[in-house]
Write a structure and sequence with these properties.
The protein has 543 residues and is an alpha/beta fold. Helices cover 38% and strands 19% of the residues. α8 (298-311) packs parallel to α9 (328-341) and α10 packs across α11.
């Protein structure tokens, strides 16, 4: 055993299906870190995570195999062990695998044993589980191999140590929610290290993939659970750390201190997740710019700030579309937001569109009272204009609705819900206010009165959200219990909430499942987002 090894953590942002591009990311790191003894990449790095039903295609798997072989060929003459994740077909099954490659040879291939099949994960749909622990000598160090979920369960690390592992190496693709990084580091990696008295190298993916975002924060802990290195969140990053290898009196490894990126506060983590999700969705799908409706309210103001921080001011366009009920304050504040962020800004009245539409409909509405129908015509007129701009210019429409609205259906289908991506779809309204204040600490772009005044859709005279909804702190507390924690109506009532209000909120959530099923994807920041995370039937008599 040598006295020490240099181990490189490669925290990259692969794109699902861009196999050639992902391979180049890998080889670029290897070219720039030729003195490293071991370089570790993330889970399924070759194909990107999660590849979903692409894994059911033989042509996709063939390209993954070809890329792996190219990497093996590339490694000839390299005195560096490469640990990389990829899908592998073997024995009539498909596995979530990690190969160890060195100097033109595939030294080992480990199969992930614990396959997550909850919340956003569907790995049992695609993969067969591995059936054994694996320890391999790399540069004189006995390395136990585990992949992502393996480290969340006790047996894989325990069994690796029982087989003589001195160092655990774990590539991951663990998606973000607001407390996930702390859960991983404090509740899982440190605990496994301390329980088994073994250092752990944890290498994570970073970046956005549809509604999922990956925060990175790759790290190393020593055998006592102490952090010795941590990479930054939401950034591609590479760090090489020295690991001392001792043979006496007992074979062991001691990671040396590397750079330790700070653990960001909650609002910083969430805001950066939203920026990353928007940036990667737009860029990876080939859009050059985005357009959004700017109402002068807090939701669209926050969305505009996120878009500019993600893409730059020159790739963002905002449109104010007033009607008779739009206040002068909203017109002033929308212009102030656009000016502060220096984006291209337009004002287009929807009055002619709405009035022509209602003139045509009024004969059919004879004898019927005005209701939300007339309000929805306004919302759909606005989306008509935004989608026309999108079609003509190629700009993707960003929607501006928040999670509270999506939950209870306080949004217009084919109106303000329509668009390509929903930046704050998983952000409760109470958190929208907090994030607006957070963003203003960077630079003041959302006027104070936008944050403090009562929210309003301005679809009828003197309208406020509180006319139709409970106050947002109460609403969000009920929604968190019902949507994110699956608490029963009775349990929520027992927690001190008014029974009639709870039943009303639950009814709104259930009734509007059909709307959410047709909404744009959006960045996931909570442990239970609408979309692939929460799949309820539209047709149901349970509640």
């Amino acid at each position: 055993m040598s006295d020490s090894i240099k181990l490189t953590l490669a925290q990259l942002n692969p794109t699902v299906g861009d196999i050639a591009g992902n391979l180049k990311l890998v080889t670029d790191v290897l070219d720039e870190n030729t003195s490293s003894d071991i370089t570790v990449f993330s889970e399924l790095c070759i194909c990107g995570y999660p590849p979903e039903d692409l894994l059911l295609r033989d042509d996709f798997l063939d390209e993954c195999d070809d890329a792996l072989q190219s990497l093996i060929d590339y490694s000839k003459g390299f005195d560096c062990a490469i640990l990389i994740g990829h899908p592998q077909r073997a024995n009539g099954h498909l596995y979530n695998a990690m190969s160890v490659i060195e100097n033109g040879k595939q030294l080992a291939c480990y199969h992930k044993r614990c396959l997550p099949n909850y919340t956003v994960f569907d790995e049992k749909r695609y993969f067969a589980p591995g059936d054994k622990a694996q320890v391999i000598d790399i540069k004189g160090v006995a390395c136990g191999l585990v992949i992502c979920e393996d480290i969340w369960e006790e047996p894989p690390v325990q069994e690796s140590v029982a087989l003589g592992a001195q160092l655990i190496i774990s590539p991951n693709a663990s998606p973000f929610h607001y407390n996930k990084s702390i859960q991983r580091e404090e509740g899982v990696v440190k605990q496994r290290a301390k329980q088994n008295k073994v250092p752990i190298v944890y290498v994570a993916q970073v970046g956005g993939q549809d509604e999922l975002v990956f925060d990175g924060a790759s790290h190393i802990v020593d055998a006592s659970g102490k952090i010795t290195a941590r990479l930054p969140i939401f950034e591609s990053a590479v760090q090489t750390v020295e690991i001392k290898a001792n043979s006496k009196p007992k074979r062991s490894c001691q990671p040396q201190m590397g750079d330790i990126a700070p653990r960001e506060d909650l609002d910083t983590r969430i805001y950066r997740a939203l920026v990353t999700g928007v940036r990667d969705y737009v860029n990876k799908n080939g859009f050059q710019k985005v357009v959004l409706g700017l109402s002068g309210g807090i939701d669209s103001g926050l969305t505009l700030a996120i878009a500019v921080d993600a893409l730059g001011k020159d790739r963002v366009e905002a449109v104010m579309m007033p009607y008779h009920y739009t206040s002068e304050m909203s017109l002033t504040d929308a212009e102030a937001e656009a000016t502060a962020l220096e984006v291209k800004y337009h004002v287009i009245s929807i009055a002619p569109i709405v009035e022509v539409s209602l003139d045509q409909l009024n004969p059919l509405f004879a004898g019927l009272e005005a209701d939300t129908t007339e309000e929805n015509v306004q919302a759909r007129a606005r989306m008509l204009l935004l989608m026309a701009l999108s079609n003509k210019t190629g700009a993707m429409v960003l929607t501006t609705g928040n999670k509270s609205e999506m939950a209870v259906g306080y949004a217009t289908l084919y109106g303000d819900m329509a668009g390509g991506f929903a930046a704050i779809k998983d952000v409760p309204k109470t958190k929208v206010f907090e994030l607006a204040r957070y963003r203003n600490t960077i630079s003041e772009v959302i006027p104070e009165r936008v944050i403090t005044r009562p929210p309003s859709a301005e679809l009828r005279p003197d309208q406020e959200d509180s006319d139709s909804l409970p106050d947002y702190p109460t609403l969000d507390a009920i929604l968190e219990r019902f949507v994110e924690h699956d608490e029963s109506i009775e349990t929520i009532i027992e927690a001190g909430f008014d029974e009639a209000l709870v039943r009303r909120v639950v009814k709104m959530v259930v009734r509007n499942e059909y709307k959410r099923r047709q909404s744009a994807p959006g960045v996931r920041i909570t442990p239970r987002a609408f979309g692939r995370d929460r799949r309820y039937p539209i047709t149901s008599k349970f509640f």
